[in-house]
Amino acid sequence: MSKKVFQVISIVILIVGLIIMFNSITWGSNSANAYLRAHGGGMDTAMFMVVFQEYINIYKLVGGILVVIGGLGFLRV
């Protein structure tokens, strides 16, 4: 694989990671609401907040991993 192609792929991975991280609150909220609907629509508020925060954390973690991989891949070349 040529150096330019590897750099482009690394930048794309980095940008996708940033997009995931910046949208983590919106996507976490949508995922938590879908979880709530899938489980009958009734849940304790404290439990819902835990689910909500964990969905946000999952998106931030995935985004962060992609940012690190993309950034290191770009710097390595």
What does this molecule look like?
The protein has one domain. The chain contains three helices and no strands. The longest helix is centred in the C-terminal third of the chain and has 32 residues. The protein is rod-shaped, with a radius of gyration of 17 Å. The mean pLDDT is 93. Keywords: Membrane, Transmembrane, Transmembrane helix.
Order of helices and strands: HHH
Which structural category fits the helices and strands? mainly alpha
Biggest β-sheet description? none
Contiguous runs where pLDDT drops below 50 for at least 5 residues: none
- Shape call: rod-shaped
Mean pLDDT: 93
Helix content: over 70%
- The termini sit apart by 11 Å
Q: Give the count of helical stretches.
A: 3
Give the DSSP E fraction (strand runs of 2 or more residues): under 5%
Rg (C-alpha, Å): 17 Å
* Count of separate structural domains: 1
Number of strands: 0
Label this structure with key terms:
77 residues; mainly alpha; 3 helices; 0% strand; rod-shaped
Topology:
Blueprint: H1 3-22, H2 24-38, H3 45-76
Helix pairs in contact: 1-3, 2-3
Explain briefly what this protein structure is.
This protein has 77 residues and is an all-alpha fold.
